Protein: SAM-dependent methyltransferase TRM5/TYW2-type domain-containing protein
Organism: Pyrobaculum ferrireducens
Amino acid sequence: MSLRRRLSGVVPGELLEKVPSSLEIIGSRSGAVAIIEIPPELENYKFAIAKAVAEANKHVRAVLRRVGGRAGEYRLYNYEVLLEGPTEVIHKEHGYYIKVDPTKVFFSSRDQTDRLDVASRVGEGERVLYLFAGVAPYAVAIAKLAKPRLIVAVELNPWGFKYMVDNFRLNKIKNAVAIHGDVAVVAPLLRRKFDRVLLTLPLGAYKYLPAALECLEKSGVIHFYHLGKEEDPFGEAEGIVTQICPHCQVVGRRVVRDYAPGVYKVRLDIYKP
Ligand SMILES: C[S@@+](CC[C@H](N)C(=O)[O-])C[C@H]1O[C@@H](n2cnc3c(N)ncnc32)[C@H](O)[C@@H]1O
């Protein structure tokens, strides 16, 4: 039964269409957290909405209302707690597990198809550098679905680093190294050792593109994330690549998902000859 149908008779008819038709659920049968956006018109009904979300999704133990956009260096949302419960959960994706508390560190379940796509491109024996790794979901996907030789993941948020280490253990990954630090400091220490670099910071990764190129072997690939407007999703990102690395080739373009109204999160795959 849809959330709107559950709430008919609770939320007045004229406001029912404002009840969100989608929400993000992070977690699994062992417990999940639901994240929902509720418009101001539904302020008086927010707790009823949270109750309906929990009733409709039996594994949900906490319901959080997203307030504003992602902010700060750690790219976190502010949340209003509508249904109090544990927010540390184990999210199950494609046969692997991601332990995360979305109130403490970035995580988006909506990036899972992109994780599959990136993992499918990793060749046997590759050395992968994963910058801005958060709880390291791309590293886990690559380690479990491909056959890399080594993955090095770098994250600044101490909670991200903690969950990254937990996730390598949880998924029995032995060939990944977690580094707690600032990419600006760590990347220059890792020069020319990698076949593939992931730059997963759509708002600002371009500033680190020169450092990422330095980390890459010849014939290596960078997965470069950026934001693009609906009318020309890749234009700005491609302009940046041409400016910073004129001899590089863009060999892949992908709209990862919606980011904001009229704005997409995009990925360019950049080949360094
Ligand atoms: C958009 S999130 C992506 C996280 C992760 N790759 C994922 O897909 O779930 C970017 C991450 O970069 C981290 N970050 C931001 N600035 C950083 C820096 N200078 N050095 C290392 N990590 C940084 C943030 O804390 C955040 O976890």
In short: Residues 3-87 form a domain with the GMP Synthetase; Chain A, domain 3 fold (CATH 3.30.300.110). Residues 73-75, 105-107, 111, 132-134, 137-138, 154-157, 160, 182-184, 200-201 surround S-adenosylmethionine (CB under 6 Å). The chain has a mean pLDDT of 95. The two ends are 53 Å apart (CA to CA).
